[in-house]
Every structure is written in structure tokens, then in C-alpha cells.
What does this fold into?
Amino acid sequence: MLSFLWTLGSFIVALGILVAVHEWGHFWVARRCGVKVQRFSIGFGKALWRRTDKLGTEYVIAAIPLGGYVKMLDERVEEVPEDQLQFAFNRKPVLKKIAIIAAGPVVNFIFAVFALYLMFLIGVPTSKPMLGNIAEDSIVSRAGITANSVITRVGGRQTLNWEEVNLELMSYIGQSTIPVTWIASGSQTERLTVLDSSQWHFEPETSSAIVSLGFSMYRPDILPILGQVIDNSAADLLGLRVDDKILRLDGTSMQNWEQIVGYVSQRPMQAIVVDVERHGQEVTLTGFIGQRDVNGMPQGFMGFTPTLDKWPEGVLFTYQYGVIDSVGKALDKTWRLMTLSVEMLGKLISGDVSVKNLSGPIAIAQGAGMSASSGIVYFLSFLALISVNLGIINLLPLPVLDGGHLLYYFIELISGRSVPESVQEIGFKIGGIILLLLMSIAIVNDITRL
It folds into this structure.
């Protein structure tokens, strides 16, 4: 229940920030262009809070936190008094209309730069893209890339961590080759290998781009040495202590942690004899395995956790830059997120990417909850990603979106005449149907993933 509330709260905060940023862009430029803004609303439906400023703009926080809007004075919507006509949106020159509509997506991109700037300034704990075991008979294994190597580039772009590797691999979906630059363990020389991705089958709902190619992220070995013993647990009652090395369970030699977990989980509430190495001496302990329910089934549980082997030197680092350098890094990453978003939309249209990849509000809520749980820098990264996507989607030439309005105004700018309202109305209906269809697919995908 607490996890659900945390996810919901994170989702509301994230969406509230992004909607406020987007609508503020429309609002700020509208006022600078001399348009009267009647309402600035975050959310839809019943107003939970409202305030009116000295210029007559009503600020509202509404009950349904799934969007927002800026209501401007407009003769097409309501009758406007004669003395207010100069402040009506529809009376403004077409270039001012374009500026007002484009401001929402543009501010989304600016906010992404700001969020990533803060992220780089604070610093992101991460690791170099060092490979663990290579999957047998995979695209990577056939290319000859070896375990413990470090991926330095995918295509022409540098990859400092696994997130960047994943983003760049995504851009090669639908292509027959993927150029990968890597450094073998113990070497200082970069090697360029071209992966044959003509038979690459990537299913986002079951794996990542990294795993589907045969890569795996390096992780230190899990040692059969206790790193924590929970108070009053079965392990504590048995007499196990931190730094004990488990040698045998009931006389059976334990070679790794997975073997220990498998042995214990199958024997809830059974007696057990544990042989451990403690301070260089072998100690024998006797007691009982505990129990916990997993999906309604009893499972053995001791209440201890292992220790990890040490990471290789230099693999772990903090992705951090100074006040000036963070600006360039934030701009570069925002631009890459923008271009990748456009590329993925193109692949969706061409069929290289399935509509199964579309995500809706449930997936966004889960992402918000997980990133917020991981820390502020990860939440900032999540906000930047969604802000970029929100900006790109709003620029699509669907009449119900900002991009559709911009399409009409560019036609007006070129032709010198506004698009007839009857044509606009038809466009709005078609755009609404397409948008509803896409949202329905995204929500079905979310539910299927759950």
C-alpha cells in the first residue's frame, strides 16, 4: 500500500511539474503578445484551489491531475466585449499566434536542459559499461566481444555508462549493423566491431536492448559471506554473525550464494546444521530455518544477506561536472533525447518498432515512483526524459495538439488566409480519434505489462 501511495504521489508531482512548465510557456508568451489569459489550470474538473491576480487571470489547481490548460480570450469560444477585442487571441497576427502555441513545447525542452543541468551539477553515481558474461550464441558472442570489456562507443557517440549504451542501441533498431567500439580487459587499445543485427529480435516488454543483443552488465560476484544478519531472525537465533563464511548446510558443501538460497528456500521450518568459517576457525551451529509467504506459498527464510566482491578499480564513478561544463552536457543530452524521440516515432510509423512499445500513464507513474525512490538525480533525469517526450508529442501535426494548431497557422502564414473553421473542425475530430486510439493502445500495453 505504501509503495502504491509513493508511486501515485511521485506521478502527481512529476506530472504537475511538467504540465505547469508546458502551460506556463503558453501563458508567459501570450501575455507578452498582449493576449488576455482568463485561466491557468493545472488539472481538470473541480477546482481544489483558485486565486485571481490583478490582471484578471484565475489560477486553478483541479481535481484530475492528468493535464492542464491555458484559457485565453477568444471570439471563437465566447462573445468578447468591444473594448476587449484587442486582447483576443484570434485578433493577433499569425506570427504571434505561432509564438504562443510553440512556447509550450519549447519550454518543455528548456526545462529538460535545466533538470539535466542540475543532475550533472549534483552528480550521478554510476558505473562504466563493463561487460559481464556474454550470452552464448548471441549477436555479441558471434562478433567476438569478450567478457570484462568496456564499451566506449556505439556508432559515433561516446558511451560513459550503461544508460547511454542502451539509448544508442535503441537508435539502431531496424538496422542491419551496429558499430560498437570496445576495450578488452587488460588492454588500452580501442577496437571497432560491427555487430550483425539483421536477426536482432528486440521485445521491450521482456528484455532491454542490451540483453537482447547478448550483452550483460558486469556485477561483482556474490560471496557466501554474511554482510547482514537481521535481529531476531532465524539466522540470528541460530547464532550466525556478520562476516561468517557459510561452508556447508546439513553437510552439503555450498559453492555459491545461489546454492545457499536455493537450499534454504525449499526447507521452511526445518531443522538445519550450518558449518561456517569464523575468524579463521570452523564453527558448527544448529537451529531451524524460518519461513515467509511468497505469493501465498511458504518459503524458507533465514534473514541474512551476502557481501559482494570488490568492483574493479575505476569502474564505479560519479557522473558530475562543474557549473560551466554542466551546461554543455545538459544541452547535448537534451538534444540527443529529442533526436532519439523523433527517430523512435519514425520507427513506429515504419513498423521497425511495434505499437507494443507505447507506454501510457501507468508506465509513467511506475517510472516516477522508481526514479523518486532512487534519489533526486534519477528523478531529475526522469523529468527531463518525459519533458522532452511531452514536447515532441505536442509538436506532432495532429489538430488537437499544439503541432496541429501550428500546422494551421503556418498554412495561414504561407497562403495569407486562415484555414476555414469547418476544415479545422474536421481536423480536430480526426486528430481526436487518432489520439484516443493511441492512448487506448498505450493503456492496454500498460495493463498487459502489469
